Amino acid sequence: MSNNNIDPSHLETLDRDLGRLSTLEQATSYVARPMIGLGIGLIFVVFAAILAAMVFGHANNTLVVVIAAAFGAYMALNIGANDVANNMGPAVGANALTMGGAIAIAVVFESAGALIAGGDVVSTIAKGIIAPESMGTSGAFITAMMAALLASALWVNLATWIGAPVSTTHSVVGGVMGAGIAAAGFSAVSWDKMGAIAASWVISPLLGGLIAALFLWFIKSAIIYKEDKIAAARRWVPVLVGIMGGAFATYIAVKGIKKLIKISMGDAVLIGIGAAILIWLVMIPIVRKQSEGLENRNKSLKVLFGIPLIVSAALLSFAHGANDVANAVGPLAAIVQASTTGDFTHSFGIPHWVMIIGALGISFGLFLFGPKLIKMVGNQITKLNPMRAYCVALSAAITVIVASWLGLPVSSTHIAVGGVFGVGFFREWDTERRMRKAMATVPGASRVAPEERRRRKLVRRSHFMTIVAAWLITVPAAALLSAGLFAVIRGVMGTS
C-alpha cells in the first residue's frame, strides 16, 4: 500500500501515542519487580480499609467491615492479575497489541464495565451455593463470607504465582462452599448447583476449544489455502468480522448491561443479527481498501484481523468487568449488608464504594501483576497469530451466549484458555493431516519417527497439564482453605 498520501502530522501523532504506550510498558516492567509491586498492592489494600472506615465511622461493626474491605481489595488485585489475562493474552500473543497497549485498554474497559454495568443485584450468595438461612446467626454468616473471600484470594494468588490461569468464579464458589460446610454442615450446600458447576469444568473448555477450532478450520479452508488469498479475504473477512460483531453485541446485551437494562435472550439475538449485518456491510469497503497492494501470502492476511482483534479484547474486558467484579465484592457486599442491617437471607445491592474497590483493584492487579499470565495465555501454550487469536476471542463470546441460553454456569477463564488449546490442537491435527497427504504423493517416502512427531507438537504439554490440574483442584482447594480459615477467624472473633 502506498504511503505517499500520508499526512506527516498523523505520523507525528502516532509516534507520540506509541511513545506513551512505550512509557507505560516501561512503567509496567518497573513496578512488576516483586517488592515494588507488592508495596503498591499493599498500599491499595490499606486504602480500601481506610475507605471502609470513613464510610462507616463509629458503627458497631466497623472493624469487621474494614477487615472485609481489605480482603475484598486483595481479591480484586488477584482477579486483575489472573483473570484479565484471558481477554488480553491472545491479542498480545498475536502481536496485535503491545503489553502496554493491552494493559491500557483493559484498565479502561474493565473499570467501565464494573462501574457502568456491574453490581447487578445479588439474590443468592455465590450463585446459590449455600442457603444463607442455614448459618443461623449473622455473626456466623459474616465469618463464613470473610473466610470465603480470603481463601479464594489466597488460592488465585497461588495460581498466579505458579502461572496457571484459574477461574476466580470457581475459587469463590469453593470458598463459600467450604465455609458453609464448616459453619452449618454438608446439608447447607446446594449439591445440585455444585453438580452443574462441576459439569462446567468439562463443558466450558471443550465448547470453547471446539468453536475456536471450527472457525480456524473455516479460515484455513476458505482463505489461507486458496490460490488467491487476497480475493478470498475480501470475500470472507467482512463476513467473519460481522459474525464477531454480532456475537459481541449479543454477548454484551445478555451479560454486560444487566444492571442498566434487562434484555431477553431472544431480543439479544435479534440485536446481534442486526449488528452483524450492519458491520458486514461497513467492513466490505474497509477490507477492500486495507487489502490494496497486499502480497498474496499468509503474512498479509494478519493486517486484516488486527483491528477486530483489538476491539474484541476491549469488549471482552468490558463484559468481564461487568460480571466478574462480583467475585471480588459480592461476599464483601454481603458482609456490609449483614453488618449494617443484620439481614443476610434476602437479596442485596452492592454499594458504590464497594464497586469502586472492585474496579480499582482489578485495574491495579492487572497493571502490577498481569503481564505474567498474559504472556502465558498469549505465548506459552501455543503460538498465536491474529487469525488464531480472532478464533479464540470469537469462541469466548459465542460460548458464553450458548451457555447462557442453556443455563450453564460456565467460566470465562476456562472458555478462553480452552479456545487457545482448541486452536493449538487443531493446528497439530491439520499439520499431521497435510504431512501424511504430502508423503502419500511421494513414492518411497519414510514415515516420521515417533520422537520427531513429539518434537513437532504445537501445544506445550507441560502447560496443558499444569492448567488442567489447577482447574480440577480449584474448588476443593479453595473449600479446604476456607474451612480452615473459618475456624481460625471464628476463634479470633469469638463468633458462634
Number of helices: 17
User: What percent of residues adopt helix (DSSP H or I)?
Assistant: over 70%
Number of domains: 1
Note the main sheet.
none
**Spatial separation of the terminal alpha carbons:** 73 Å
Q: What is the H/E order?
A: HHHHHHHHHHHHHHHHH
The tally of beta strands, per DSSP, is 0
- Strand residue content: under 5%
Look at the helices and sheets and give the structural class.
Answer: mainly alpha
Main location: membrane
InterPro entries: Phos_transporter (IPR001204)
Protein name: Phosphate transporter
Keywords: Membrane, Phosphate transport, Transmembrane, Transmembrane helix, Transport
Question: In terms of topology, how is this protein built?
Answer:
Elements lengths: L7 H24 L2 H23 L5 H21 L2 H9 L5 H19 L20 H25 L5 H17 L6 H34 L4 H28 L8 H26 L7 H44 L10 H18 L1 H10 L5 H21 L5 H29 L9 H6 L5 H33 L3
Helix pairs in contact: 1-5, 2-3, 2-12, 3-6, 3-11, 3-12, 4-5, 4-11, 4-13, 4-14, 5-11, 5-12, 6-7, 6-11, 6-17, 7-17, 8-9, 8-14, 8-15, 9-10, 9-11, 9-14, 11-12, 11-14, 14-15
Keywords: Membrane, Phosphate transport, Transmembrane, Transmembrane helix, Transport
Membrane topology: Multi-pass membrane protein
InterPro entries: Phos_transporter
